[in-house]
Design a protein that fits this description.
about 110 residues, alpha+beta, three-stranded antiparallel beta sheet, globular
Length: about 110
Amino acid sequence: GECDAGWVQMNSSCYYPSREKKSFDRAQRACSYHAASLVTITSPEENSLVFNIARDFLVTPEDTPVWIGISTSQTLQWTDGTPIHYTNWIIGEPDANGACVQMILNGL
């Protein structure tokens, strides 16, 4: 299918690169409003795709981490219920601090 205006279609998925700075909870609510969810990254290819979309659409990518759909209550999990099989953590992460995850766009 086609994606709505402002969304980027890659393969069978639609991605919305928002330039608005929001908390994790507000970003999640904004996605829900559009019957969507924060991005679930399931492969190295999708990781690169999301990275490139974010880098190309954000005004200052080096200063703007991107929320992705991982959160924790007891364990890390994708917010849409997808099991976590693919990860691309920087050294030292995940740690015991924080309850949600961002993609860092600088230094890659």
